[in-house]
Queue: 2 jobs
Job 1
Amino acid sequence: MNKHIAVINGDGIGPEVTAQSVRVLNAIAEQFGHEFTYTYCLMGADAIDKTGNPLPDETVEGCLNADAILFGAIGHPKYDNDPTAKVRPEQGLLKLRKSLQLFANIRPVSTYAALEHLSPLKAKQLENVDFVIYRELTGGIYFGEKKVAEDYSEASDLCVYTKTEIERISHLAFKAAQQRRKKLTLVDKANVLESSRLWRKVVQEIAPQYSDVVVDFLFVDNAAMQIILNPKQFDVVLTENMFGDIISDEASVISGSLGLLPSASVGAATALFEPIHGSYPQAAGKDIANPTGSILSAAMMLDHFGLHKEAEVVRAGVNWALANGFVTKDIDPVNYYFTSTIGELISDFV
Amino acid sequence: MNKHIAVINGDGIGPEVTAQSVRVLNAIAEQFGHEFTYTYCLMGADAIDKTGNPLPDETVEGCLNADAILFGAIGHPKYDNDPTAKVRPEQGLLKLRKSLQLFANIRPVSTYAALEHLSPLKAKQLENVDFVIYRELTGGIYFGEKKVAEDYSEASDLCVYTKTEIERISHLAFKAAQQRRKKLTLVDKANVLESSRLWRKVVQEIAPQYSDVVVDFLFVDNAAMQIILNPKQFDVVLTENMFGDIISDEASVISGSLGLLPSASVGAATALFEPIHGSYPQAAGKDIANPTGSILSAAMMLDHFGLHKEAEVVRAGVNWALANGFVTKDIDPVNYYFTSTIGELISDFV
Ligand SMILES: CC(C)[C@H](C(=O)O)[C@@H](O)C(=O)O
Ligand SMILES: CC(C)[C@H](C(=O)O)[C@@H](O)C(=O)O
């Protein structure tokens, strides 16, 4: 199989973890007789530094011409502490999501026996945790009209959802539930927000088309508790953009390490794969970042290409490394391996 | 001291837990020679059933004429599952917060040795947890303009903040930090939202007036992780309405029981005290709900009246009951006491 992949290293530890995924993808290509080619594109603080623009046109074009996108991380502290900055790295990612219509962010949440001691949760909470969050990614308050008064006396953000936006991701989430344990939980704040009430209405309307799926509803404040109190109750969690941002990051602590978790952002035409961790600038350039979140994102990409056997081999490599103590500093601060060593070991395993 | 208290029982378990607080307040009054008088007011589903209005005018008036308000809980499932309902219990609470300008919701988060086994978090996470969340309560997306298209093709909510709204709660939070461990953490999403950038700007501007307080900033998605991973890092957490709703409920799981946690909502003219738990309709009328969240809210009310010794006695009563196994079913499902028994025991302790 021939596949063309756009690679966006991004900021901070982005380049180093992404390099290991490319290495693993190359090992898979060689092993299974595929051809993967790559175009490197700029985005984020990196792109601002080099071009003044967090998302140069060539990047959008490069992504549109690719079969899928592998992305590292975005963000730099120099922008975070300047609330009046006009250009910001994150604009690049938001604009890319919008341009490519990557409307569904999919984040599996599971646990690893080898990491149990790192989880903040008790063993009881970790039993049988296996759910996936479907976060709407191109609508809501992130993309609604933003205003700030010239004298900074007032600022606002608008949260808008259309029925169509809610429907398309809801169908994906219902279909995922049908392939899983047949339960879908909508997280909203329908007791207060009009947009949440629209979500609830649309999901209630669609539900009869998936009569084998049991639907329930949770207010986001309650969901923030339930994810910690009883995470095994969830199968597919569906939610809007901002709530998804918050609860999927919250859910990511369950496993014991952020460094391990992958995600996929899918649209009608293409899909982007990225680890859920951020750019973590303190660790950049030190060869200590955990590359497995990115490598498992590459595995999700292989699944997306229909290469399920190959994806399984990558996941087996990650599990093998974990089980044998081949881990980065975030997981074992004493006996640890470098980012590049983990990438090499998993490539060799493949 | 003479104090007049407006009591709003509200919905579900509201009446039964509030009754125990009144009992404890009466015991305090007798013991310390105060006179507390009460006016009972309607709000929520209860008020809709009786008057058609979730917040009758007499309730606002009753609250304005009182020195403080003791409130139970709000909400009923029959409204939650009808996204097109025009009247909802929660409107009552939101309107009351707005009418009385209760702009700061204050929620202490701490742990109890006797409940450690109930916490979903490991002992390591629970060490030295002692922080307080200042949630803005009368602005943001809860109160911004709401729209829904007649054909339900689109819906929106506007999140607006003015500089003045941010300033008044920020000053309270900074002052609280000065009385505590001198650290303030602003939780926002300044990398995406214009309103969050205004929060960050205003807090940065105010900070020099409180030069003994160390200020840091966390994006809300990161905060949702840090609260679980390392809660002891927090002292005073300041945030806007919706983020505060989510992270304060998340933080409430740390202690091991929601049933124990109090809150105060303060404004320029008056203050309202309520347990953080909801109306929990499944338990209503069974005399099994935990009244300590409400009783500790009453203790916060005593503090608000300047009756610190009295507040300490109430807290001592709660600690004594907990330490001696006088607990409700949520805490010990086998050897448990009734709501009313706990109220009686704590009153007797006083
Ligand atoms: C970087 C930021 C804009 C982004 C978001 O909030 O969407 C990130 O937190 C994420 O979750 O992918
Ligand atoms: C009932 C609801 C409107 C309320 C809120 O979200 O503010 C509640 O969840 C709370 O946190 O006090």
Job 2
Amino acid sequence: MFNSILQTIIQWAISHGIKILAILIVAWIILRILKTIIRRVIKSVIGKTYGIRDGVAVEKRTATLETVFYSTVKIVIWVIAVMMIIPEFGVNIGPILAAVGVAGLAFGFGAQYLIRDLIAGLFIILEDQYRKGDSIKVGDVAGTVEEINLRKTVIRDVDGVEHHIPNGEIKIASNRTKLWAKINLEIGVAYDTDLDKVIKVLNKVGQEMAKDKDWKDIIIEEPQALGVNEFADSAIIIRVSGKVKPGEQWGTARELRKRIKEAFDKEKIEIPFPHRVVIQKK
Amino acid sequence: MFNSILQTIIQWAISHGIKILAILIVAWIILRILKTIIRRVIKSVIGKTYGIRDGVAVEKRTATLETVFYSTVKIVIWVIAVMMIIPEFGVNIGPILAAVGVAGLAFGFGAQYLIRDLIAGLFIILEDQYRKGDSIKVGDVAGTVEEINLRKTVIRDVDGVEHHIPNGEIKIASNRTKLWAKINLEIGVAYDTDLDKVIKVLNKVGQEMAKDKDWKDIIIEEPQALGVNEFADSAIIIRVSGKVKPGEQWGTARELRKRIKEAFDKEKIEIPFPHRVVIQKK
Amino acid sequence: MFNSILQTIIQWAISHGIKILAILIVAWIILRILKTIIRRVIKSVIGKTYGIRDGVAVEKRTATLETVFYSTVKIVIWVIAVMMIIPEFGVNIGPILAAVGVAGLAFGFGAQYLIRDLIAGLFIILEDQYRKGDSIKVGDVAGTVEEINLRKTVIRDVDGVEHHIPNGEIKIASNRTKLWAKINLEIGVAYDTDLDKVIKVLNKVGQEMAKDKDWKDIIIEEPQALGVNEFADSAIIIRVSGKVKPGEQWGTARELRKRIKEAFDKEKIEIPFPHRVVIQKK
Amino acid sequence: MFNSILQTIIQWAISHGIKILAILIVAWIILRILKTIIRRVIKSVIGKTYGIRDGVAVEKRTATLETVFYSTVKIVIWVIAVMMIIPEFGVNIGPILAAVGVAGLAFGFGAQYLIRDLIAGLFIILEDQYRKGDSIKVGDVAGTVEEINLRKTVIRDVDGVEHHIPNGEIKIASNRTKLWAKINLEIGVAYDTDLDKVIKVLNKVGQEMAKDKDWKDIIIEEPQALGVNEFADSAIIIRVSGKVKPGEQWGTARELRKRIKEAFDKEKIEIPFPHRVVIQKK
Amino acid sequence: MFNSILQTIIQWAISHGIKILAILIVAWIILRILKTIIRRVIKSVIGKTYGIRDGVAVEKRTATLETVFYSTVKIVIWVIAVMMIIPEFGVNIGPILAAVGVAGLAFGFGAQYLIRDLIAGLFIILEDQYRKGDSIKVGDVAGTVEEINLRKTVIRDVDGVEHHIPNGEIKIASNRTKLWAKINLEIGVAYDTDLDKVIKVLNKVGQEMAKDKDWKDIIIEEPQALGVNEFADSAIIIRVSGKVKPGEQWGTARELRKRIKEAFDKEKIEIPFPHRVVIQKK
Amino acid sequence: MFNSILQTIIQWAISHGIKILAILIVAWIILRILKTIIRRVIKSVIGKTYGIRDGVAVEKRTATLETVFYSTVKIVIWVIAVMMIIPEFGVNIGPILAAVGVAGLAFGFGAQYLIRDLIAGLFIILEDQYRKGDSIKVGDVAGTVEEINLRKTVIRDVDGVEHHIPNGEIKIASNRTKLWAKINLEIGVAYDTDLDKVIKVLNKVGQEMAKDKDWKDIIIEEPQALGVNEFADSAIIIRVSGKVKPGEQWGTARELRKRIKEAFDKEKIEIPFPHRVVIQKK
Amino acid sequence: MFNSILQTIIQWAISHGIKILAILIVAWIILRILKTIIRRVIKSVIGKTYGIRDGVAVEKRTATLETVFYSTVKIVIWVIAVMMIIPEFGVNIGPILAAVGVAGLAFGFGAQYLIRDLIAGLFIILEDQYRKGDSIKVGDVAGTVEEINLRKTVIRDVDGVEHHIPNGEIKIASNRTKLWAKINLEIGVAYDTDLDKVIKVLNKVGQEMAKDKDWKDIIIEEPQALGVNEFADSAIIIRVSGKVKPGEQWGTARELRKRIKEAFDKEKIEIPFPHRVVIQKK
């Protein structure tokens, strides 16, 4: 009897065992190949995008993405391999497929947000939309990026509040510190002011500040008055605009405002309060 | 025994090998045909649309779209071919299909945004809705287009903020610099002003500016007063409207405002402050 | 041996070849029939709708819709035919169906917006909701229609901005220039004015303008004061309303406002500034 | 040989032809029966609803709905019949079903809005929510109904703008001219006015207008002061309310406002301007 | 031959006819049973809920719901029966199922709103959320209920506008006339008023009104001053609150406001106008 | 022949009858087991949560949830049992499954809101988020809970309006009366006031009230001035904050406001009206 | 006969019993393995994240997550095992699968929100976005975290209101007390103030407060004036900014405001009321 069992096992091993072995080997080979492909694709994509700013962190990102993709592929391939091996033992995988299918679908309904986040995150990283340290704006939230990963972006706003934003919630990612930034001041002057003089004063303030040793490395294009932007209720609005290094726009604007105020005081140009004409009746 | 194995292989080769070869050849032929079809369709569509503006970049776009479509078709065709070959080795592809199906569905839930983006992007490029360098407005964000690809549009706004907008988020794409633009000023004058005189002055300012050597290449139609647009609380609003080259609307409007102010000062026409009638009681 | 192969081919040709030929012929016949049906249905629908305005462009639209529908039907019919022919060569189309099914579903999730756009566009054209040259309003965007096709509508607003609106985004299409338009002015007069006199003056201005040779072809119904629309804070609001040719409502309203102002000046009727009663205390 | 072919055809005709004939006959019988059922159901439903207002247009609507439902049913029945006949010719309908299924699903995603529109339209017509000529409000759009069909409602607003509204976009249909309408005026009087006198004056104005020969056919319930609705900043608000014929509410309210103003002038009741108590300091 | 056909029919009748008969009988029995179950369940549910208010209309509602549910069940059961009978005639129901399935799915996408409406309506009626004659508020629309059925609620607002609201659009149903209602007045008094005196006056007005023969049946709890609700810009806000019969809250509040005004006039308590402190400069 | 029929029945009874009996018995056993499991799970979960507040109503809730879950399980088990028994009678359940499947899917689209409501309700009850008698806020609606069940929450607001809210519409449930509540007053004082004195006075008012015999049982932490919360336009805003018993926050705040007013009057601290600096020109 | 039954049972036991036993054993082994894997993965993930703040509660969280995941896996594995065992008793599991499938789908539609909540909760805990005791802001709700679990977060706001927020409703989680916080005051000074003096005074107040023994442990970076943030209508706005310990930002800001007010009073710097220039006419 022992003999017959042995024979059965041998027969099984010949007819099924070889097949199982083949499945395992093929799965392993496919994995090897996919690993190489993934690496090459990521390297080529990352390489293209990252030439724009600088070469820092390229290596790290490549590694991260490789790990993520390779893990996903590994799980998928081995699950398929296992499902192809199971029937060789005479087990019907129908129930497993059905149970997993229903569970997968139920999970899928809820997990779609997670997948959306990951896809969004993938493009944020691949396209280098923003990096750690950049100042970005997402919907109503603005601040400095503290951390980016595939699922979420963490930013700190000006009050030190830490916002955790799933990447899929980022409809429009607005990077405020990409290569350069602009300052735009809207200065209101009284309706009876000489506009040419105002513009001359504003341009002079801009020029002097751009030559100042504290600011000349920060200012890329000196702030200049662009002209009359609006006839407001009580003031004529002049726009002043300049280009500065990224992240320096707020400090530069504050300083420029102070200098304009001082120049206006000296030149007797008035920033008017709200005006009202009153007609007395009865 | 070696003979019998050889015979088996030969038999397999005859019955299955030929089939596999046939599948591979047919797949390759179909790909060749589809490649030609894709090229022709894209060329004809692009050709039609791009006659409107100019011939620049047609070649580049054609190439990009060709690559994208051909890659997609290539993947689909080869996957089908592989799936048709696998059963020839006696392997049941049921589990593979099931696993891939569930994974595909789960991914599909999350990836629908990505596909939506790509379809939207396809039409933006095909229909030439806007190009690199155009000034567009999308929802609450407006700026100059820095980059367009199938998935997203990158624009820089007036503060230098770089906005990354997935194309699917662009419900209405508003191009502010397509062939020409208009300037529309709403000028408020006092209720006791002679309207005919105001209109004459405004029209004269418009004419003179349109003849000015600095502006005559920019202004397509000279700014003219259209009439009384509104009886506002404290002023009668006159609309002035003109046509200019795309991208020049803001600069032209600023200059026009300045000239109107100077003309009004000369002609003693008042841009009124808010008025209030006050009745003293008790 | 050559004979036996020939015989096999002949046998195959008899058993399968005839079937394939039959499939091709039937597909071609069905296409012919559907072509005729499509043409007739479109012609009848277009015919009915377009009697309302005029006969222009009916031919062109009929042709466009025919092409679109016929192309769709052609693709569907030939795909079915090919799928029915493939099994005759002994090829299992299961994998193809599965691959195409998953891809189709994944694409379907993202493409639903595109299909929605096309269906919406179909009805816009069929029902003649608006045409090239009409002035329409869609959500927050208003302007003149520059182009309509099945997928999108392009409009230019008053600032010359070109808006590309996918037809599916058009929830309510508001046509401002369909056969006729109305002007509605809300004129505020002082609380101590004689209302009967005001109404008489307004009506007279309306009558005279409607008789004016420049305006009599534009005005369909002369502008008349409808009565007291509101007791506002500082003024009694009188509504003036008239009917004009489509597209002329803005120009007519501007002229009417100017004439009312002049008549009021002559008749000493005041358009009041905001009033405030002030009680001095302590 | 000719004989054997003939025999084959006869055999086929006996075994399959009869079946095909039977299918066609049964399909035709089912259609006849369904036609009668549809007619009866619609007549009974329409009959019930339309007793409320009047008998006009019942015939026309019944006919329209019959056509729509019968066409739908006809297409479904014949498609089923054709699909049941095809296999009799030895053709596998699997590919057809699969192709149509995928196309149907893809289309279904986009067409759900269309179906939603049709279902909504069905209830608008069946329940007689509004008719051509009624003045309705849908979301932010209000106007007179120019056309209703299963898919959409067309309304003209007070500016003559024609709005095309898909019925599915109509969440709440508000009919402003169903059997009767009400006018509600909020009249502000000074804080130091005798409220009893004000109410007496308002009621008298309402009574006199309701007896006026121009208005007595329009006013169903004479406008009466309901009492003190609010202590506003500068005025006590009295509400006046009355019932009028549908569509007459705006004209009646305008006339009533004018009469109240004249009565107030006669009785020296003041409609106050905004008040402010001012305390001088320093 | 006639004999053999007869025999065939008899054989068919024995083998299939009995089965068909059995299916019909069983379907009929199941329907009978379900009818009884439906009646009992509805009666028990309705019975429980309707004890809260009164016994009116219970019978009618029970009948309506019975009809609706029984009709649905009847259609489902007979459709199943027919589908089980068809194969007995040797007809393949696959195509029918497929066609109906695709149509059903396509319809289901659009009809989900209808089903949502019906489910929502079922609970409104079962739970007696509101009835004909109640005054309810749904989103931005408020008025008196004119009609409720499974699909929609019709309400008339204070301007006589008839709103048709699909029950599924009713997120929160707010019944303003359920058993009792409250009145809440916010009365502003000057900052230099004696608060104790104000509260005493307000309470006295409330007490007197609650004892008045016209109002004592309407007022459940006499209106009392609750205290200082807010320090507003120019006034101290006192809240007065009382309980009245449902539907009487608006009339009672109007009368109470009038009485408070009269009492304040008598007691020289001032309802202040907006105050402003003005500092003259230069 | 009778014998043969009997024999057939006996054979059927042996081969199928036993199976049917077995199915019924197993179904019954499974139900018993599930009943016990359900009871234990609910008791353990409810037990844990309800330790937080008090032991009231635990029994009743346990019973309610048990009934709901057990009924659901009972229906599912018996439906499965019936479907397993039907084929034993030689009936094909395919059509039943198909019909029920399509109906179930169509219903499922619409019923998802109902299921969402029930799941949300389950957690509200299990987690004891709020109870009958608590004052809660849900979106824009706030009031006292009158009833909670698995599907909806009924609340009465301060005007006596009864709101029926499906539990699924409750995104954030805000319980205003859980264990304790806080009062927060923002008191504005003039810019020239001595802040230290104001804070001393406010703290003294808080202390005295906390010691008052009417209020000492209600106030948990005496109201204290926290400091300068804002430099407003015309006033410095001081925040006063204290802890009270749940439901007493509104009455306590009203009394506190009155006492602060009286203390301020005594100490000559001014709650300022809006200020404006006026500069006379021309 | 007894013998033959016994024999049947033995045969069944040999052919099926062994299989059942094998299934049970394999299921148990797989569970053991998965348990170890789950523990390791959680420990490694938790370990990485929690290094950032501190080691507290790591153990507890690990245990919680382990329980949740292991329970889920246990249920899935045993359900699969049971479904694989059932057919061994000759029972067709088709109906069970179908019934469970439809029920599962129907439930899945409604339960997707629950699953979304759980996934969101998982990441909140794993990533340590916030903890019990942190002050967070979620949409319009802000307060202190009282409890976090996989499904929901409970927070108490400043009024003591307890908000129950399902984790899936938390789009952006904003932690206001992570490691540090910032204070940002916007101080308005009169237009004619010496800005350099104002900045000096503000900086001095900040320095002194940072050195104060009550505050030096709380303030991380002393509050400093950053410059002119805005030219407002009636004031120049100076921003003052500093860094403090988490949770201390509100108290510190209140104290700083008080100190600034006192310093301004001493230095005669004015925080201006709203200004208005008034021009008298007629």
